[in-house]
Amino acid sequence: MDRDREQLMAANEGLARRINEAIEGGQWPGEHGQRTAYRCECARLDCKRTVELTPAEYEQVRAHPQRFLVLPGHERPEVETVIEATPAYVVVEKGGDAGTVAEAADPRD
Fold this sequence. Notes:
Elements: H1 3-25, E1 36-39, E2 50-53, H2 55-62, E3 67-70, E4 80-85, E5 90-94, H3 96-104
């Protein structure tokens, strides 16, 4: 895969992550136990799908800046390792250069 396409895909993942940070930040007090629709953080440029999980579940993913929340089937085994798979979502971790880029682009740092 060429470097320009990889950078575009990484930018797409970063955008989805920033959207999810805003979703989580907009929770009302007492809503943290309820399921919320988060955006799939996959690299697919045309993906606008959502996955429902609680803010606590999303926080478990975000505790590691190289991990992303994606829908089943949206993982990219050439640059990601599956950390957790559920029927509703998959947690993937970026490795190598992709992991370095993900950590550097983490909006929480």
